[in-house]
UniProtKB/TrEMBL annotation:
Forms part of the ribosomal stalk which helps the ribosome interact with GTP-bound translation factors. Is thus essential for accurate translation. Pfam families: Ribosomal_L12 (PF00542), Ribosomal_L12_N (PF16320). One of its GO terms (biological process) is translation. This is Large ribosomal subunit protein bL12. Residues 53-119 form the Large ribosomal subunit protein bL12 C-terminal domain. It comes from Paenibacillus antarcticus. It comes from the Bacteria. Residues 3-47 form the Large ribosomal subunit protein bL12 oligomerization domain. The keyword Amino-acid biosynthesis does not apply. The keyword Coiled coil does not apply. Homodimer. Part of the ribosomal stalk of the 50S ribosomal subunit. Forms a multimeric L10(L12)X complex, where L10 forms an elongated spine to which 2 to 4 L12 dimers bind in a sequential fashion. Binds GTP-bound translation factors. InterPro entries: Ribosomal_bL12, Ribosomal_bL12_C, Ribosomal_bL12_C/ClpS-like, Ribosomal_bL12_oligo, Ribosomal_bL12_oligo_N_sf. PANTHER family: 39S RIBOSOMAL PROTEIN L12, LARGE RIBOSOMAL SUBUNIT PROTEIN BL12M.
Length: 119
């Protein structure tokens, strides 16, 4: 079978059939179809392209009550839920938000006395 014949056969396959073919090839030859990525290069690209951030409450600090109030305001949680979240720090408060929103949330929490990280 020539390369052209193989390509013609692949062109006629559905997406599901192609997926099954890839899995069969991976199993048969002990390879993976994932594209190799340089670790250092991908980390730099991710840092430049990051558009979604997570705001993580690391600790409540000295003024736990003010932090609970701030968490309630930011998340809309009830008193018990906000207290549980603060008590179980480190916890993510907001996930996949814009940089501006993450910075605003961080500022509010730090003003209340919390230790916060934006990832």
């Amino acid at each position: 079978m020539s390369n052209e014949q193989i390509l013609e056969a692949i062109k006629g396959m559905s997406v599901l059939e192609l997926n099954d073919l890839v899995k069969a090839i991976e199993e048969e030859f002990g390879v993976t179809a994932a594209a190799p990525v340089a670790a250092a290069g991908s980390a730099a690209v991710e840092a430049e392209e990051q558009s979604e951030f997570d705001v993580v409450l690391m600790s409540a600090g000295a003024s736990k009550i003010n932090v609970i109030k701030a968490v309630r305001e930011i998340t809309g949680l009830g008193l018990k839920e906000a207290k549980d979240l603060v008590d179980n720090a480190p916890k993510a408060l907001k996930e996949k938000v814009s940089k501006e929103e993450a910075e605003t949330v961080k500022a509010k929490l730090e003003e209340a006395g919390a230790n916060v990280e934006v990832k």
